[in-house]
Amino acid sequence: MIDLPPPDPTTTRRAIGTILVIDDSRSNLTVLGRRLGHLGYLTVLSDTGAEALDLIAARGFDLVLLDMVMPRLSGMQVLREIRGSRDTADLPVIMLTGRSDPAAAVEALEAGADDHVAKPFDFDVLAARIARTLARARRIAELKRSNANLDARIAARAVELGETKTQLAATRADRQRLVASIQALNDQVERLSR
Fold this sequence. Notes:
Layout: E1 18-22, H1 26-38, E2 42-46, H2 49-58, E3 63-67, H3 75-84, E4 93-97, H4 102-110, E5 115-118, H5 123-193
């Protein structure tokens, strides 16, 4: 892992997201780390796929920038590991690659990347794609929270409905007993009045 110098406290802002950058080029890592830091992102840098997977397992990230071609554990293998884990299956991943052929983009997207950016890239374009991907991930997370809340409300209503049905059945049984008692009293009154 590559450590960047701490940010200047006079320019430090609250991080707007935590990004893991994975690239086997230390110079690419340093440049991306600094540029993303200037935009307000907290960045963690890794130069191997194995180390990156350990970092992902150990802490939460909002987004991963992943180099497609790396020695030992390739970016595609890392992406498959990320998508294969229930805990990280929805982690946004933008694949970076020096391959400019359309097949690279198709391969990355089919493997589950949220976006694909060919190197060399314009940093402003990458920054816009990061912002868009993070915004979409936040909306999806909010929808999941809303769905979970709705599921909880539905479950609570189902319990209430079950309780109401039980009360209704008890009330009907009481009513039938009362009707039977009244009928028995009516029959008794009729017998006495003859």
